Amino acid sequence: MTEPIALRVLDRFRGLFSRFGVDYPVMRRILQVKLTMDARRVPTIVGKSKQRSDDQNAEDHNQFAKSLWIYALFGVFCSAFMWLGDNYFFKMSLTFGVLMFIVMTSLISDFSSVLLDIRDRNILATKPVNHRTLTMAKTMHVCIYLIMLTGAIAVVPLITGLIRHGILFFLIFAVELIFMDLLVVALTALVYLTVLKFFDGEKLKDIINYVQIGLTIVMTIGYQLLIRMFNLIDFHVTFQPKWYQLYIIPAWFAAPFESLLHRNGEPILTVFSLFGIAVPLLAFIIYIRLMPSMERHLQKLADPGGRPVRGKGRLLQGLSRIFCSGSQERGFFRLAWSLMGNERDFKLKVYPILGFSIIFPFLFLFTSGFDDGLKGLQGSPKYLFIYFSGAMISTIIMMLQYSNKYKASWIYKTLPISDYEEVHRGALIAAIVRLILPLFLVQSVIFSFIFGSGIILDLVTAGLSLLLYTVICYAFLHRNLPFSQPFDAIQNEGLRVLPLILLLGGFGVLHFVMTFINYGVYAYTMVLILLNFLVWHPNRKIFKRLTRRVEN
Amino acid sequence: MNNVMPIITIRDLRKRYGDRFVLNGIDLDVYPGQIIGYIGPNGAGKSTTVKIMLGLVGDFTGEVRIMGQSPDGEDVEYKRKIGYVPEIAEIYDTLTAREYLTFIGELYGLSTDDAESKAQGLMNRFGMGRVFDHRIASFSKGMRQKVLIISSLLHNPDILFLDEPLSGLDANSVMVVKEVLALLAASGKTIFYSSHMMDVVEKISNRIILLDDGRVVADGSFAELQEKSQEGSLEQIFNQLTGFNEHKQIAEQFVAIVRGEAHD
């Protein structure tokens, strides 16, 4: 068992934890065990011979820590803000806006499952450990990762700030970051707690998913507001804080820089600064007070649903008949459809991503500016931004490999499946029909309202491109049978997705080029139809090569 | 027995999920030294009762007292006196048996050294001394079950809740565990033994509680139940009390459907 540094840091706050009714030694022990287990998340392929603890020192390093450099890279971009003039309020609002955005979204999509974990209730909740200690252990578990993540993003901006503005700036920055993390964790947890309190069973799980999507979208829009708050074209404009900006949380964290470093005594700034300290503390204290009830309500997640849902079977049968050929393919279509709809961990991971997909095209649409209002958009080629809705396809497709109940995939081996092609096709079609297609349709409708009916052909073209792109993603990313890997095994897949994102851009650019050629889009559409036909035709067995790869 | 205080009292315990009641008013007094065979058909509410007593499930009505304490409150000290082997056992299987058991022992309030040496001793007795430092992920079902049994006993609890504790164990280990249970009960421990293997329940328990549809339908020693129902084995008593006497017909229909000779 390892003794992570994080625990030694926590030891310094021992007294504080005890004051809140937390049994510190027990919490520390739970955290130590959890961190040790995290560090041991090795891919399942590792043979049993390696599972001796003698070589644990060689194995016990955290995969998460290894992936942090990507966040550090974000930080490098953020540090550019440090050079934006001398208006602290302006540039720090921007910096904190970006940081909060990244931290909050990763908390929602990656760590919600930790906050809402009930798998180890039988182990922990049956022991004489009070609710408060259990929840605090969970919260600290998340906080440790969040602080590592924040640290990774902020390291370059911090150093840049130190060089450019001196030690005091650096210190304020560091302290404010901690307050920001506190706020983010407490807010998210409080939202979950509220939901947990008022709903139960299955409905609750769905609502949590919607909350996640909602939060993702709100964060994204809030970030837009932040940028609008300033006139980006003229960096040196003297920015006047206004009271309505109190709603913009990153501004709270930016105010102290102005107050303390520029000795700006403006009351607005003082109030903002106080908010930046008081609200996170208050939120966290409320959270701590409510923690025991959080732990109690969590049990609801394990409760059986009130009433079994029936009647969806017909619809699903019909859908599988429309979209699939062959009875095994239909079967796996239905399996994948139900798993995607029922498995909480899958939804927790994928739904926020769907939220992004919805918002992405509009995000780019609005940031690209539209001086003439909505009317000015008609006739412009900006409808091609709909390609951005495909930005998350690769991630969704990747997720198809994972499941909480990955062990159930033994059925693939024991069933007389003559052709794994059908397994893959079934799952892929289910993902398209259930997740990707509805999203694209909604967006197409909105886009045709904005741009007029003239773009309908282009939307069809884009749809066909995305369909082809989805298949390419699947072929490129899937090394396993659907739902056959534990979520633990996801590692650094972000890098594998990168070339696919570029490819998507390629599709968009190609479409754009075609619009300049007479009948270019028509010809392009015909080509896409043909390609899709070739790829999807059951007799072509395009998944065959992939299938063979998987079987080995 | 009447002058001994019950260690567990349950009065009119009800629990519902949505609009479905799983427990419909359970009354129970349990005394030290009893081995209680806690039986009933699937979905009768056995696990729910146990989970309520352990504080895993809340929002019930009625009164539950374990050593005078309610599992509903903030105070969790009473859990120090309870050992639990759950039916579906999540276990931190990336840990080694040594790490896991020491951790559990510590949660129960043992010192690290005590927990570790006790765990080592018990593992050795189960013939698992050699795998003490192996990860639990590499264990077979029976080995995991042994780890679970050990983890429920490390802290010398006064009450044991066992849900199918013998599943996956080989015949020799089964004999050891049964003997262990008898000795524990003789030393005044209370054991709640929940199982579907009627012959085992019949042999080891000195009191049998039969649950059906969230109610206690029978409570007494095996001899008493035999007398009342005029049946020979616990299995037959079980069938009779749960109103089940058509196993032959059902089996015949079942096979007919398997062979494609009949439909529903």
Automatic annotation (TrEMBL), chain A:
Which domain of life does the UniProt lineage start with? Bacteria
Residues crossing the lipid bilayer are 68-84, 96-118, 139-163, 169-195, 207-226, 268-290, 350-370, 382-402, 423-449, 455-477, 497-515, 521-539
Keywords recorded for this protein, A-Z: Membrane, Transmembrane, Transmembrane helix
Q: Does the keyword Disulfide bond apply?
A: no
**Keyword Membrane (UniProt):** yes
Spell out the protein name for this chain.
ABC transporter permease
- What species was this sequence derived from? Paenibacillus aceti
TrEMBL record, chain B:
Top-rank lineage group of the source organism: Bacteria
GO MF term list: ATP binding
The UniProt entry, under Gene3D superfamilies, shows: P-loop containing nucleotide triphosphate hydrolases
- List UniProt keywords, sorted A-Z: ATP-binding, Nucleotide-binding
Query: In its keyword annotation, does this UniProt entry include ATP-binding?
Result: yes
Which residues does the UniProt record annotate as the domain ABC transporter? 8-238
Q: Does the keyword ATP-binding apply?
A: yes
Against PROSITE patterns, the record matches this protein to:
ABC_TRANSPORTER_1, ABC_TRANSPORTER_2
Family matches, as InterPro entries: AAA+_ATPase (IPR003593), ABC_transporter-like_ATP-bd (IPR003439), ABC_transporter-like_CS (IPR017871), P-loop_NTPase (IPR027417)
This one is known as ABC transporter ATP-binding protein
What species is this protein from?
Paenibacillus aceti
